[in-house]
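Researcher: I've been going back and forth with a colleague about how Putative succinyl-diaminopimelate desuccinylase might be arranged in three dimensions. Neither of us has a model we trust, so I'd like an independent prediction. The organism is Terricaulis silvestris, in case that matters for your notes. Sequence below.
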Amino acid sequence: MLRRLQTHLLGAVLMCGLATAAQAQTPSTAERTEALEIYRHIVSLDTSIEGGQTPAMANYLADRFRAAGFPAEDVHVLPLAQTAGLLVRYRGDSSGGRPVLLIAHMDVVPARRSEWERDPFTLVEENGYFFGRGASDNKAGLTHLVQTFISLRRENFRPTRDLIIWFSGDEETSGATTMALLGEHRALIGDAEFALNADAGGGVINPAGQALYALQTAEKTYASYSFTARNQGGHSSAPREDNAIYELAAALTRLRAFQFPVMHNDTTIASFRAEAPLDQTPTGRAALRFAENPGDRAAARTMSRNPYYAAQLRTTCVATMLSAGHAENALPQTATGTVNCRVFPGVALADIESELRAIAGAGIEVALIAPANASDASPLRADVMGALSAALRANHPNAVITPYMSAGATDGLFFRAAGIPAYGVGGIVSADEEDNAHGLNERIPVAAFYEGFTHWRVLLTTLAGRN
Ligand SMILES: [Zn+2]
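Model: Here is an independent structure prediction for Putative succinyl-diaminopimelate desuccinylase. You can compare it with whatever you and your colleague have in mind.
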Protein backbone atom coordinates (compact mmCIF):
# COMPACT_ATOMS: atom_id res chain seq x y z
CA MET A 1 0.00 0.00 0.00
CA LEU A 2 2.64 2.46 0.94
CA ARG A 3 5.50 2.51 -1.44
CA ARG A 4 7.19 5.82 -2.01
CA LEU A 5 9.03 7.73 0.60
CA GLN A 6 7.55 10.49 2.64
CA THR A 7 8.17 13.99 1.40
CA HIS A 8 10.05 15.00 4.51
CA LEU A 9 12.80 12.66 3.42
CA LEU A 10 13.46 14.80 0.38
CA GLY A 11 16.41 16.32 2.07
CA ALA A 12 17.90 13.03 3.18
CA VAL A 13 21.58 12.36 3.44
CA LEU A 14 23.91 9.50 2.88
CA MET A 15 24.21 6.30 4.80
CA CYS A 16 26.35 3.75 3.19
CA GLY A 17 29.48 3.48 1.19
CA LEU A 18 29.84 -0.27 1.26
CA ALA A 19 29.13 -1.02 -2.34
CA THR A 20 31.52 -1.14 -5.19
CA ALA A 21 30.24 0.63 -8.27
CA ALA A 22 28.25 -1.89 -10.21
CA GLN A 23 28.40 -2.13 -13.95
CA ALA A 24 25.16 -0.71 -15.22
CA GLN A 25 23.55 -3.42 -17.28
CA THR A 26 20.65 -1.89 -19.08
CA PRO A 27 17.94 -4.27 -20.31
CA SER A 28 18.30 -5.43 -23.92
CA THR A 29 15.67 -4.55 -26.49
CA ALA A 30 14.35 -8.13 -26.39
CA GLU A 31 14.10 -7.99 -22.61
CA ARG A 32 12.28 -4.65 -22.69
CA THR A 33 9.83 -5.96 -25.28
CA GLU A 34 9.09 -9.11 -23.31
CA ALA A 35 8.73 -7.20 -20.03
CA LEU A 36 6.39 -4.65 -21.62
CA GLU A 37 4.21 -7.45 -22.99
CA ILE A 38 3.91 -8.97 -19.50
CA TYR A 39 3.28 -5.59 -17.87
CA ARG A 40 0.62 -4.71 -20.47
CA HIS A 41 -1.15 -8.01 -19.96
CA ILE A 42 -1.19 -7.93 -16.17
CA VAL A 43 -2.43 -4.30 -16.09
CA SER A 44 -5.30 -5.44 -18.38
CA LEU A 45 -6.44 -7.90 -15.70
CA ASP A 46 -8.67 -6.27 -13.09
CA THR A 47 -7.13 -7.80 -9.98
CA SER A 48 -9.08 -5.62 -7.56
CA ILE A 49 -11.35 -7.34 -5.08
CA GLU A 50 -14.27 -6.45 -7.37
CA GLY A 51 -12.59 -7.52 -10.60
CA GLY A 52 -11.60 -10.95 -9.30
CA GLN A 53 -8.90 -11.61 -11.91
CA THR A 54 -6.04 -12.29 -9.52
CA PRO A 55 -6.19 -16.10 -10.07
CA ALA A 56 -6.06 -15.46 -13.84
CA MET A 57 -2.96 -13.31 -13.31
CA ALA A 58 -1.32 -15.98 -11.14
CA ASN A 59 -1.96 -18.63 -13.81
CA TYR A 60 -0.72 -16.39 -16.61
CA LEU A 61 2.52 -15.69 -14.76
CA ALA A 62 2.93 -19.37 -13.81
CA ASP A 63 2.76 -20.20 -17.53
CA ARG A 64 5.39 -17.60 -18.32
CA PHE A 65 7.73 -18.94 -15.65
CA ARG A 66 7.31 -22.53 -16.86
CA ALA A 67 7.82 -21.44 -20.47
CA ALA A 68 11.08 -19.77 -19.43
CA GLY A 69 12.38 -23.05 -18.04
CA PHE A 70 11.32 -23.08 -14.37
CA PRO A 71 10.38 -26.69 -13.54
CA ALA A 72 6.69 -27.23 -12.82
CA GLU A 73 7.45 -28.44 -9.29
CA ASP A 74 8.99 -25.05 -8.48
CA VAL A 75 5.97 -23.01 -9.63
CA HIS A 76 3.01 -23.04 -7.24
CA VAL A 77 -0.32 -21.28 -7.66
CA LEU A 78 -1.97 -21.26 -4.23
CA PRO A 79 -5.70 -20.51 -4.52
CA LEU A 80 -7.47 -19.01 -1.51
CA ALA A 81 -11.18 -18.16 -1.67
CA GLN A 82 -11.64 -15.70 -4.59
CA THR A 83 -7.96 -14.95 -4.97
CA ALA A 84 -4.60 -16.73 -5.18
CA GLY A 85 -0.91 -16.37 -4.44
CA LEU A 86 2.02 -17.42 -6.64
CA LEU A 87 5.31 -18.86 -5.45
CA VAL A 88 8.29 -19.57 -7.73
CA ARG A 89 11.56 -21.05 -6.53
CA TYR A 90 14.76 -20.33 -8.46
CA ARG A 91 17.08 -23.03 -7.22
CA GLY A 92 20.62 -22.13 -6.30
CA ASP A 93 23.60 -24.25 -5.28
CA SER A 94 23.30 -23.20 -1.59
CA SER A 95 26.95 -22.13 -1.45
CA GLY A 96 25.76 -18.61 -0.64
CA GLY A 97 23.54 -19.49 2.30
CA ARG A 98 19.84 -19.57 3.05
CA PRO A 99 17.08 -18.60 0.58
CA VAL A 100 16.05 -15.02 -0.06
CA LEU A 101 12.37 -14.13 -0.56
CA LEU A 102 11.29 -11.59 -3.17
CA ILE A 103 7.82 -10.25 -2.58
CA ALA A 104 5.24 -8.17 -4.45
CA HIS A 105 1.45 -8.17 -4.74
CA MET A 106 -0.79 -8.96 -7.71
CA ASP A 107 -3.98 -7.28 -6.49
CA VAL A 108 -4.84 -3.62 -6.95
CA VAL A 109 -7.20 -1.08 -5.41
CA PRO A 110 -10.48 -0.80 -7.42
CA ALA A 111 -10.64 1.79 -10.20
CA ARG A 112 -13.76 3.14 -11.88
CA ARG A 113 -13.54 3.51 -15.65
CA SER A 114 -15.98 6.44 -15.60
CA GLU A 115 -13.74 8.47 -13.28
CA TRP A 116 -10.44 7.94 -15.05
CA GLU A 117 -9.18 9.97 -18.00
CA ARG A 118 -8.07 6.72 -19.68
CA ASP A 119 -9.24 3.14 -19.26
CA PRO A 120 -7.57 2.07 -15.97
CA PHE A 121 -7.23 -1.50 -17.23
CA THR A 122 -5.44 -0.66 -20.46
CA LEU A 123 -1.78 0.21 -20.17
CA VAL A 124 -1.35 3.55 -21.92
CA GLU A 125 2.06 5.06 -22.73
CA GLU A 126 1.76 8.82 -23.08
CA ASN A 127 4.08 11.81 -22.54
CA GLY A 128 6.79 9.67 -20.99
CA TYR A 129 4.50 7.84 -18.57
CA PHE A 130 2.76 4.52 -18.30
CA PHE A 131 -0.79 4.98 -17.03
CA GLY A 132 -3.07 2.31 -15.56
CA ARG A 133 -4.35 0.87 -12.30
CA GLY A 134 -1.37 -0.93 -10.78
CA ALA A 135 1.05 0.79 -13.18
CA SER A 136 2.92 1.85 -10.08
CA ASP A 137 1.39 -0.14 -7.17
CA ASN A 138 2.56 -2.83 -7.61
CA LYS A 139 2.56 -4.22 -11.14
CA ALA A 140 5.72 -2.36 -12.18
CA GLY A 141 7.76 -3.79 -9.28
CA LEU A 142 6.18 -7.18 -9.84
CA THR A 143 7.14 -7.10 -13.55
CA HIS A 144 10.70 -6.24 -12.52
CA LEU A 145 10.87 -9.44 -10.51
CA VAL A 146 9.22 -11.61 -13.18
CA GLN A 147 11.44 -10.42 -16.01
CA THR A 148 14.62 -10.53 -13.94
CA PHE A 149 13.93 -14.16 -13.02
CA ILE A 150 13.14 -15.06 -16.64
CA SER A 151 16.18 -13.26 -18.06
CA LEU A 152 18.63 -14.69 -15.51
CA ARG A 153 17.28 -18.19 -16.07
CA ARG A 154 17.73 -17.86 -19.83
CA GLU A 155 21.28 -16.70 -19.32
CA ASN A 156 21.83 -19.84 -17.22
CA PHE A 157 22.62 -17.80 -14.15
CA ARG A 158 22.91 -20.19 -11.21
CA PRO A 159 22.27 -18.38 -7.93
CA THR A 160 24.42 -19.24 -4.94
CA ARG A 161 21.27 -19.51 -2.83
CA ASP A 162 17.61 -20.17 -3.59
CA LEU A 163 15.63 -17.12 -4.66
CA ILE A 164 11.92 -17.44 -3.94
CA ILE A 165 9.31 -15.17 -5.47
CA TRP A 166 6.09 -14.69 -3.49
CA PHE A 167 3.29 -12.72 -5.13
CA SER A 168 0.36 -12.22 -2.78
CA GLY A 169 -3.23 -11.90 -3.99
CA ASP A 170 -4.82 -9.61 -1.40
CA GLU A 171 -2.25 -7.18 -0.01
CA GLU A 172 -4.65 -4.27 -0.47
CA THR A 173 -7.36 -5.99 1.58
CA SER A 174 -6.93 -8.80 4.11
CA GLY A 175 -3.42 -10.16 3.54
CA ALA A 176 -4.90 -13.66 3.89
CA THR A 177 -2.80 -15.20 1.10
CA THR A 178 0.42 -14.17 2.83
CA MET A 179 -0.85 -15.31 6.22
CA ALA A 180 -1.71 -18.69 4.61
CA LEU A 181 1.77 -18.91 3.08
CA LEU A 182 3.37 -18.28 6.46
CA GLY A 183 0.94 -20.67 8.19
CA GLU A 184 -0.16 -23.62 6.03
CA HIS A 185 2.49 -23.48 3.29
CA ARG A 186 5.50 -22.53 5.38
CA ALA A 187 7.52 -25.48 4.00
CA LEU A 188 7.55 -23.79 0.57
CA ILE A 189 9.75 -20.97 1.84
CA GLY A 190 11.99 -23.21 3.92
CA ASP A 191 14.39 -21.35 6.16
CA ALA A 192 14.36 -18.11 4.16
CA GLU A 193 16.79 -15.63 5.70
CA PHE A 194 15.09 -12.37 4.76
CA ALA A 195 12.61 -10.87 2.31
CA LEU A 196 13.08 -8.08 -0.23
CA ASN A 197 9.86 -6.22 -0.93
CA ALA A 198 9.23 -4.65 -4.35
CA ASP A 199 6.16 -2.91 -2.89
CA ALA A 200 8.07 -0.66 -0.48
CA GLY A 201 11.13 1.55 -0.62
CA GLY A 202 11.78 3.89 -3.50
CA GLY A 203 13.54 7.05 -4.45
CA VAL A 204 12.99 10.55 -5.67
CA ILE A 205 15.35 12.65 -7.70
CA ASN A 206 15.64 16.10 -6.18
CA PRO A 207 15.91 19.32 -8.20
CA ALA A 208 19.71 19.10 -7.92
CA GLY A 209 19.57 15.76 -9.73
CA GLN A 210 20.47 13.62 -6.76
CA ALA A 211 18.61 10.34 -6.14
CA LEU A 212 17.40 10.11 -2.54
CA TYR A 213 16.34 6.62 -1.66
CA ALA A 214 14.23 5.50 1.30
CA LEU A 215 14.80 1.90 2.41
CA GLN A 216 11.86 0.55 4.38
CA THR A 217 13.06 -1.55 7.30
CA ALA A 218 10.20 -1.22 9.76
CA GLU A 219 6.48 -0.60 9.89
CA LYS A 220 4.30 0.42 12.76
CA THR A 221 1.40 -1.91 13.39
CA TYR A 222 -2.08 -0.66 12.63
CA ALA A 223 -4.59 -1.60 15.33
CA SER A 224 -7.99 -0.05 16.08
CA TYR A 225 -9.90 -0.44 19.34
CA SER A 226 -13.43 0.38 20.37
CA PHE A 227 -14.13 2.07 23.71
CA THR A 228 -17.72 1.39 24.75
CA ALA A 229 -19.67 2.77 27.70
CA ARG A 230 -23.05 1.18 28.49
CA ASN A 231 -25.90 2.49 30.63
CA GLN A 232 -29.50 1.57 31.39
CA GLY A 233 -30.58 4.91 29.90
CA GLY A 234 -33.82 6.62 30.80
CA HIS A 235 -35.68 9.85 30.18
CA SER A 236 -33.55 12.91 29.48
CA SER A 237 -35.96 15.03 31.54
CA ALA A 238 -34.53 13.35 34.64
CA PRO A 239 -30.75 13.20 34.14
CA ARG A 240 -28.61 11.17 36.51
CA GLU A 241 -24.99 11.27 37.51
CA ASP A 242 -24.19 8.14 35.44
CA ASN A 243 -24.20 8.79 31.67
CA ALA A 244 -22.58 6.72 28.92
CA ILE A 245 -21.56 9.75 26.85
CA TYR A 246 -19.87 11.55 29.73
CA GLU A 247 -18.11 8.37 30.82
CA LEU A 248 -16.79 7.75 27.30
CA ALA A 249 -15.79 11.41 26.97
CA ALA A 250 -13.87 11.24 30.25
CA ALA A 251 -12.07 8.08 29.11
CA LEU A 252 -11.09 9.68 25.78
CA THR A 253 -9.93 12.80 27.58
CA ARG A 254 -7.62 10.63 29.72
CA LEU A 255 -6.36 9.02 26.51
CA ARG A 256 -5.66 12.48 25.08
CA ALA A 257 -3.40 13.28 28.01
CA PHE A 258 -1.58 9.95 27.88
CA GLN A 259 1.69 9.33 26.05
CA PHE A 260 3.24 5.94 25.42
CA PRO A 261 6.91 5.63 26.36
CA VAL A 262 9.63 6.97 24.04
CA MET A 263 11.25 4.25 21.95
CA HIS A 264 13.89 3.95 19.27
CA ASN A 265 15.45 1.40 16.95
CA ASP A 266 18.28 1.29 14.40
CA THR A 267 15.99 2.62 11.71
CA THR A 268 14.59 5.62 13.55
CA ILE A 269 18.03 6.64 14.83
CA ALA A 270 19.52 6.35 11.33
CA SER A 271 16.68 8.37 9.82
CA PHE A 272 16.96 11.12 12.47
CA ARG A 273 20.69 11.25 11.83
CA ALA A 274 20.09 11.59 8.10
CA GLU A 275 17.25 14.10 8.19
CA ALA A 276 17.87 16.25 11.21
CA PRO A 277 20.97 18.10 9.96
CA LEU A 278 18.81 19.56 7.18
CA ASP A 279 16.13 20.71 9.58
CA GLN A 280 17.45 23.89 11.17
CA THR A 281 14.50 24.29 13.54
CA PRO A 282 14.67 23.55 17.29
CA THR A 283 12.88 20.27 16.50
CA GLY A 284 15.56 19.26 14.00
CA ARG A 285 18.30 20.08 16.52
CA ALA A 286 16.44 18.06 19.16
CA ALA A 287 16.19 15.08 16.78
CA LEU A 288 19.94 15.21 16.28
CA ARG A 289 20.54 15.26 20.05
CA PHE A 290 18.12 12.35 20.43
CA ALA A 291 19.96 10.37 17.72
CA GLU A 292 23.21 10.86 19.68
CA ASN A 293 21.57 10.07 23.02
CA PRO A 294 18.17 8.37 22.96
CA GLY A 295 17.97 8.92 26.73
CA ASP A 296 17.71 12.70 26.21
CA ARG A 297 14.21 13.36 27.60
CA ALA A 298 14.26 17.07 26.85
CA ALA A 299 15.01 16.34 23.20
CA ALA A 300 12.15 13.81 23.09
CA ARG A 301 9.77 16.40 24.59
CA THR A 302 10.67 18.93 21.90
CA MET A 303 10.27 16.34 19.14
CA SER A 304 6.91 15.25 20.55
CA ARG A 305 5.40 18.63 19.66
CA ASN A 306 5.90 17.88 15.96
CA PRO A 307 3.43 15.26 14.64
CA TYR A 308 5.93 13.66 12.25
CA TYR A 309 8.69 13.24 14.85
CA ALA A 310 6.16 12.30 17.53
CA ALA A 311 4.98 9.38 15.38
CA GLN A 312 8.56 8.18 14.98
CA LEU A 313 9.18 8.30 18.73
CA ARG A 314 6.47 6.13 20.21
CA THR A 315 3.24 4.20 19.82
CA THR A 316 0.36 6.60 19.21
CA CYS A 317 -3.34 6.03 19.88
CA VAL A 318 -5.90 8.63 18.94
CA ALA A 319 -9.69 8.94 18.94
CA THR A 320 -10.96 8.94 15.35
CA MET A 321 -14.72 8.18 15.43
CA LEU A 322 -17.69 8.48 17.81
CA SER A 323 -21.21 7.15 17.95
CA ALA A 324 -23.60 7.43 20.86
CA GLY A 325 -27.21 7.72 21.92
CA HIS A 326 -30.44 6.78 20.20
CA ALA A 327 -32.79 9.75 20.68
CA GLU A 328 -32.35 13.40 21.59
CA ASN A 329 -34.73 13.04 24.51
CA ALA A 330 -33.27 9.83 25.96
CA LEU A 331 -30.30 9.16 28.21
CA PRO A 332 -27.73 7.28 26.10
CA GLN A 333 -27.61 3.49 26.47
CA THR A 334 -24.34 3.15 24.62
CA ALA A 335 -21.51 5.40 23.59
CA THR A 336 -18.67 4.07 21.45
CA GLY A 337 -15.43 5.70 20.38
CA THR A 338 -12.92 4.31 17.87
CA VAL A 339 -9.28 4.62 18.85
CA ASN A 340 -6.70 4.06 16.12
CA CYS A 341 -3.23 3.01 17.24
CA ARG A 342 0.05 2.85 15.33
CA VAL A 343 2.15 0.54 17.44
CA PHE A 344 5.91 0.90 17.60
CA PRO A 345 7.71 -2.16 16.16
CA GLY A 346 8.45 -4.80 18.78
CA VAL A 347 5.63 -3.81 21.15
CA ALA A 348 3.15 -6.60 21.92
CA LEU A 349 -0.46 -5.73 21.16
CA ALA A 350 -1.49 -7.30 24.47
CA ASP A 351 0.55 -4.58 26.23
CA ILE A 352 -1.20 -1.85 24.26
CA GLU A 353 -4.60 -3.31 25.08
CA SER A 354 -3.92 -3.54 28.80
CA GLU A 355 -2.62 0.04 28.81
CA LEU A 356 -5.79 1.20 27.05
CA ARG A 357 -7.95 -0.67 29.58
CA ALA A 358 -6.16 1.06 32.42
CA ILE A 359 -6.68 4.45 30.79
CA ALA A 360 -10.34 3.75 29.98
CA GLY A 361 -11.17 2.61 33.49
CA ALA A 362 -13.44 -0.12 34.81
CA GLY A 363 -16.71 1.12 33.30
CA ILE A 364 -15.51 1.10 29.69
CA GLU A 365 -15.20 -1.99 27.49
CA VAL A 366 -12.08 -1.98 25.32
CA ALA A 367 -11.93 -4.33 22.31
CA LEU A 368 -9.62 -4.81 19.34
CA ILE A 369 -11.76 -4.17 16.25
CA ALA A 370 -9.90 -6.40 13.74
CA PRO A 371 -6.93 -8.75 14.03
CA ALA A 372 -3.59 -6.98 13.77
CA ASN A 373 -0.03 -8.18 13.29
CA ALA A 374 2.68 -6.70 15.47
CA SER A 375 6.18 -6.82 14.03
CA ASP A 376 9.75 -6.04 14.97
CA ALA A 377 11.95 -3.64 13.04
CA SER A 378 14.32 -5.45 10.71
CA PRO A 379 17.99 -4.97 11.59
CA LEU A 380 20.09 -3.01 9.10
CA ARG A 381 22.08 -5.72 7.32
CA ALA A 382 25.38 -4.90 5.63
CA ASP A 383 24.73 -7.36 2.77
CA VAL A 384 21.34 -5.84 1.91
CA MET A 385 22.63 -2.28 2.27
CA GLY A 386 25.63 -3.11 0.07
CA ALA A 387 23.55 -4.76 -2.65
CA LEU A 388 20.98 -1.95 -2.59
CA SER A 389 23.69 0.64 -2.83
CA ALA A 390 25.21 -1.15 -5.84
CA ALA A 391 21.77 -1.46 -7.48
CA LEU A 392 21.00 2.23 -7.01
CA ARG A 393 24.36 3.40 -8.24
CA ALA A 394 24.00 1.35 -11.40
CA ASN A 395 21.28 3.82 -12.45
CA HIS A 396 22.08 6.82 -10.23
CA PRO A 397 25.76 7.07 -9.33
CA ASN A 398 25.15 9.78 -6.73
CA ALA A 399 22.31 7.99 -4.94
CA VAL A 400 22.06 8.16 -1.17
CA ILE A 401 20.07 5.85 1.09
CA THR A 402 18.25 6.46 4.33
CA PRO A 403 16.27 3.79 6.19
CA TYR A 404 12.74 4.61 7.24
CA MET A 405 9.96 3.26 9.40
CA SER A 406 6.59 3.61 7.72
CA ALA A 407 3.32 3.98 9.57
CA GLY A 408 2.03 0.82 7.79
CA ALA A 409 1.22 -1.28 6.00
CA THR A 410 2.63 -3.68 3.38
CA ASP A 411 3.05 -7.46 3.21
CA GLY A 412 6.49 -6.91 4.76
CA LEU A 413 4.94 -6.75 8.21
CA PHE A 414 3.60 -10.33 7.99
CA PHE A 415 7.12 -11.58 7.28
CA ARG A 416 8.62 -9.51 10.09
CA ALA A 417 5.93 -10.80 12.43
CA ALA A 418 6.86 -14.35 11.38
CA GLY A 419 10.52 -13.73 12.26
CA ILE A 420 11.74 -13.04 8.71
CA PRO A 421 13.30 -9.57 8.38
CA ALA A 422 11.87 -7.63 5.43
CA TYR A 423 13.32 -4.75 3.46
CA GLY A 424 11.45 -2.44 1.09
CA VAL A 425 13.93 -2.08 -1.80
CA GLY A 426 11.63 -1.30 -4.75
CA GLY A 427 13.31 -0.30 -8.00
CA ILE A 428 11.42 2.87 -8.82
CA VAL A 429 13.38 6.10 -8.59
CA SER A 430 12.01 9.19 -10.29
CA ALA A 431 11.55 12.91 -10.10
CA ASP A 432 7.81 12.31 -10.30
CA GLU A 433 6.28 12.23 -6.86
CA GLU A 434 2.74 12.10 -8.16
CA ASP A 435 2.40 8.41 -8.88
CA ASN A 436 -1.18 8.51 -7.56
CA ALA A 437 -1.04 4.96 -6.26
CA HIS A 438 -4.57 4.03 -5.07
CA GLY A 439 -5.93 7.20 -6.75
CA LEU A 440 -6.99 8.38 -10.20
CA ASN A 441 -4.73 8.20 -13.25
CA GLU A 442 -2.02 6.15 -11.53
CA ARG A 443 1.24 6.39 -13.45
CA ILE A 444 4.96 5.76 -13.56
CA PRO A 445 7.65 7.37 -15.73
CA VAL A 446 8.65 5.07 -18.59
CA ALA A 447 12.35 5.60 -17.90
CA ALA A 448 11.96 4.68 -14.22
CA PHE A 449 10.09 1.52 -15.22
CA TYR A 450 12.97 0.32 -17.41
CA GLU A 451 15.66 1.30 -14.90
CA GLY A 452 13.98 -1.01 -12.41
CA PHE A 453 15.21 -4.07 -14.34
CA THR A 454 18.83 -3.02 -13.86
CA HIS A 455 18.08 -2.35 -10.19
CA TRP A 456 16.78 -5.87 -9.53
CA ARG A 457 19.40 -7.58 -11.69
CA VAL A 458 22.18 -5.93 -9.69
CA LEU A 459 20.43 -6.63 -6.37
CA LEU A 460 19.94 -10.33 -7.09
CA THR A 461 23.29 -10.99 -8.71
CA THR A 462 25.04 -9.20 -5.83
CA LEU A 463 23.20 -11.13 -3.12
CA ALA A 464 23.18 -14.50 -4.90
CA GLY A 465 26.01 -14.36 -7.43
CA ARG A 466 29.70 -15.17 -7.45
CA ASN A 467 31.33 -11.80 -7.10
ZN1 LIG B 1 1.26 -1.87 -2.86
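Researcher: What would you highlight for our discussion?
Model: I'd start with this: The CA atoms of residues 28 and 34 lie 10 Å apart. After that, consider the following. The first strand starts at residue 75 and ends at 80.
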